[in-house]
Specification:
The protein is α+β, with helices and mostly antiparallel strands. It has six domains: about 1-40 and about 155-185, Phenylalanyl-tRNA Synthetase, Chain B, domain 1; about 40-150, Beta Barrel (OB fold (Dihydrolipoamide Acetyltransferase, E2P)), CATH 2.40.50; about 195-400, Phenylalanyl-tRNA Synthetase, Chain B, domain 3 (3-Layer(bba) Sandwich); about 405-475, Phenylalanyl-tRNA Synthetase, Chain B, domain 1 (2-Layer Sandwich), CATH 3.30.56; about 490-695, Bira Bifunctional Protein, Domain 2 (BirA Bifunctional Protein, domain 2, 2-Layer Sandwich), CATH 3.30.930; about 710-795, 2-Layer Sandwich (Alpha-Beta Plaits), CATH 3.30.70. The strands form ten sheets. The chain has a seven-stranded mixed beta sheet with strand order 27-30-31-35-34-33-32, with helices on both faces. Helix 5 crosses helix 6 (about 250-260), helix 6 (about 250-260) packs antiparallel against helix 9 (about 370-385) and helix 19 (about 725-735) runs antiparallel to helix 20. The longest helix is centred in the last third of the chain and has 19 residues, at about 775-795.
Length: about 800
């Protein structure tokens, strides 16, 4: 909203400069986005008088003017055809920059010096079209005065960014009330309303029916006859222009002017275009149409409130008038509407029809239902004064349920507790009364407060406390630290999340963050069974599209989509992870179960040095093993599982003891092809909350071993279906306490390996803490391990 500083001062006196006023309003909750000086581009232009004109010796179309600026006489050359001696003109001396960016310099024109410019209206930015000559000023213009003073542009505009709870300040009188409360003194100068009613009674000339009182709680109207349509007075046009509203004619301008005064939108109908001399406020019929003032046809439905006569709609209530009843140059009689419309309905109508307006902006935030008649009378008075109108006796006022002010109890002890102050009941009362709240009853610690009609944003005790804070001054409230019995800092879960991100990023993965909203088709592609928990979605009532219709129950679809999008853009190698929540529907009336998950995936990230057929699988498996090791989860096992979207022979469940933490595996070839992924793409998904239960971050230290270790390699042939994890478990069990470490270092299938067999090679590290191991001890343990593997898995030493 644009507010003229000078215009505001006509309603209340205040001692603040424009800059100080902007600061005060902002600190009171009405943020001022900017301050604009209306005369900024003309502040160096001055009024001069042409005292002598002589012909240019070297040019027929140029003349030499001697111009008196009050301080000096300048020689200025011009080609304007309308220069005359004695004319008052706008002068731009040397060094001045015009609104169009031209900088005035001393120059020679056809051999004669020129020290400035006599300006036209377009050069001053006062007209868009090219002017035929220079601007000739009125006789009362004083030589030497600034053009900003002559044009009445010595004014500032405050650009307010008002939140909906400050809707009352969309009118200058509302701002004046706020300034009065902020100062604690002063008197509002309400606009003049000096009606001279004549002629017939209004009820003899028009009837009004309101068919939907919920959508139109109050509707009033006046008739003004014999108006003369012409331009508005210059002062009114300038005030509207400062507020960002284009002047049209005196009738329309007056309705806009009063709207800016009272925050009450008005609409003027051509009375002679109202059929049957009857106004009906009703819901539109389905598919009913109206051509609005912007000359566009609008298709309506029964959710839209219209102003109609017995034959047709003539306006969209609270939004825009109809072209069939607009004010034209032929209009002589006016029906002036001033009403209160349901804010929710106006907002929906403006949004549905994509037709926001100054009127709808105010109606949808709520106006003062008690000032409807006064605003209409003010506009009627101005039409009487500036359009020669004759105001018909009486006002139509359909007001079935008069306003009943809300009463709220306010505890002073609660005020002090919330604001951290020590105010007395008298001090709080005085602040509220400055804001024109009425105190009905006062006790030692309690006030019963009546809310004025224009404060529809105040509904409860907390709202009154906010008003006290505003008037006391937010900047005057002492700064205190919130009381807390606990030491600040992150929770264990938050620290674990940070550590997880650090470890996975350190392992070469990039973090991604996907939408929590997804579509059912993402899970259909994964072959998820109909009875799976992953199909227990929380559905969105009004989704933007089917692609965002449900809350995700797994992070895997999002990971696959990220990998696929990058693979389509020729990204050959990447690995990503996501730490986020999934949502499981628990049934009607129950809140969704939220579970924190950790998922990831990779494409082309490891050269297949083992010819294993699943390089990304082993890369991610190694990342997770390193991750679990850092978290102190040392009892991890990978066991075969079946997952609908993973390769049957290359999928594993990840277990900590008997607890399944998640899954890892290579994506099905068919799904890889469907998503345009790289071959052997692998993914994992873990239950982060189960991981949190297993974490052991405490470090146990032990002395470095004093005695040397013995390392042995073991290469065996086993059936290709034997799991390496099971072999590791058996080796550790038979190796006993002296087997400190065992690792796989080779997996081979191919030449010299029998069909349906595979070669696995392990490194075994034996060590004792109290002695040097003898070969006989190591050989015995090594033999025990071989016999166990041969007995249990049919393993043979590879030659």
């Amino acid at each position: 909203m644009r507010v003229s500083y000078n215009w505001l001062k006509t309603y209340i006196d205040f001692p603040y400069s424009p800059e100080e006023l902007a600061e005060r309003l902002t600190m009171a909750g009405m943020e001022v986005d900017g301050l604009e000086y209306l005369g900024e581009e003309l502040k160096e232009i001055i009024v001069g008088e042409i005292i002598r004109i002589k012909e240019h010796p070297n040019a027929d179309k140029l003349v030499i003017c001697e111009v008196n600026t009050g301080e000096e006489v300048l020689q200025i050359i011009t080609g304007a055809p309308n220069v005359v001696e004695g004319a008052k003109v706008p002068v731009a001396p040397v060094g001045v920059t015009l609104p169009n960016g031209m900088k005035i310099k001393a120059a020679k024109l056809r051999g004669e010096p020129s020290y400035g410019m006599i300006c036209s209206t377009d050069e001053l930015g006062l007209s868009e079209e090219r002017a035929p000559g220079i601007m000739i000023l009125e006789e009362e213009a004083e030589v030497g005065m600034r053009m900003v003073d002559y044009l009445d542009l010595d004014d500032y505009v405050l650009k307010l960014d008002l939140t909906p709870n400050y809707a009352r300040c969309l009118g200058l009188l509302g701002l004046a009330r706020e300034l009065k409360a902020m100062q604690g003194q002063g008197k509002i100068k309400y606009p003049a309303i000096d009606l001279e009613e004549t002629g017939e009674e209004i009820n003899d000339l028009i009837a009004v029916e309101v068919w939907d009182e919920d959508l139109c709680p109050r509707y009033t109207g006046r008739i003004i006859k014999n108006v003369k349509i012409e331009p508005s007075p210059e002062w009114l046009q300038k005030r509207l222009a400062a507020a960002g509203i284009r002047p049209i004619n005196n009738i329309v301008d007056i309705t806009n002017y009063v709207m800016l005064e009272y925050n009450q939108p008005l609409h003027a109908f051509d009375y002679d275009q109202i059929a049957g001399r009857k106004i009906i406020v009703r819901r539109a019929e389905n598919n009913e149409a109206i051509i609005t003032l912007d000359d566009k046809e609008r298709k309506l439905d029964d959710e839209v409130l219209v102003i109609a006569d017995p034959d047709k709609p003539i306006g969209l209530a609270g939004v825009m008038g109809g072209a069939n009843s607009e004010i034209t140059e032929e209009t002589t009689n006016i029906f002036l509407e001033s009403a209160y419309f349901n804010p929710v309905n106006i907002r929906k109508t403006a949004k549905k029809l994509a037709l926001p307006s100054e009127a709808s902006h105010r109606f949808e935030r709520g106006i003062d239902i008690e000032k409807v008649v006064e605003a209409g009378n003010r506009a009627a008075y101005l039409m009487q004064k500036y359009a020669g109108g004759e105001v018909v006796r009486g006002t139509i006022d359909v007001y079935p349920q008069p306003f009943e002010p809300l009463e709220i109890e306010l505890e002073i002890s609660l005020v002090n507790k919330i604001l951290g102050l020590d105010l007395t009941v008298t001090e709080v009362r005085e602040m509220l009364e400055r804001l024109e709240f009425t105190v009905v009853k006062q006790d030692e610690d309690l006030l019963l407060v009546k809310v004025p009609s224009y404060r529809n944003d105040v509904e409860r005790e907390a709202d009154l406390i906010e008003e006290v804070a505003r008037i006391y001054g937010y900047n005057n409230i002492p700064v205190t630290r919130p009381e807390s019995k606990q030491q600040g800092g992150k929770t264990f879960k938050q620290k674990l999340e940070d550590l997880t991100r650090d470890l996975l990023i350190g392992s070469g993965l990039d973090e991604v963050i996907n939408f929590s909203l997804t579509g059912e088709t993402s899970f259909d592609r994964l072959n998820i069974p109909e009875d799976s928990e992953l199909r227990q979605w929380v559905r969105i009532k009004n989704p933007l599209s089917e692609a965002y219709a449900v809350l995700r129950t797994s992070l895997v679809p999002g990971i696959l989509e990220v990998l696929a999008n990058n693979a389509k853009r020729q990204i050959e190698k990447m690995a990503v992870f996501e730490l986020g929540k999934i949502f499981i529907n628990q049934g009607e009336g129950e809140p969704a179960r939220e579970v924190m998950k950790l998922a990831g995936g990779s494409i082309g990230y490891l050269r297949d040095i083992w010819n294993s057929g699943a390089p990304d699988f082993f890369y991610l498996k190694g990342v997770l093993e390193s991750y679990f090791n850092r978290l102190g989860i040392n009892n991890i096992e990978f066991k075969p599982v079946k997952v609908p979207y993973l390769h049957p022979g290359r999928a594993a469940g990840i277990f900590a003891g008997e607890k399944e933490l998640g899954i890892i595996g290579e994506v099905l070839p068919g799904l890889i092809e469907k998503l345009d992924l790289k071959q052997r793409t692998a993914v994992f998904e873990l239950d982060f909350e189960l991981i949190q239960q297993e974490v052991k971050l405490e470090k146990n230290y032990q002395p470095l071993p004093k005695y040397p270790a013995v390392e042995r390699d073991l290469a065996i042939l086993v059936d290709k279906d034997v799991n390496a994890g099971d072999l590791l478990v058996s080796i550790k069990e038979r190796g006993g306490e002296l087997l400190k470490e065992v690792n796989i270092f080779d997996l081979y299938k191919g030449d010299q390996i029998p069909e349906n067999k595979k070669s696995l090679a392990f490194t075994l590290l034996f060590q004792a803490e109290d002695r040097t191991l003898r070969d006989e001890e190591v050989n015995q343990l090594f033999g025990n391990i071989l016999r166990e593997l041969e007995k249990k898995y049919g393993a043979k030493i590879r030659g």
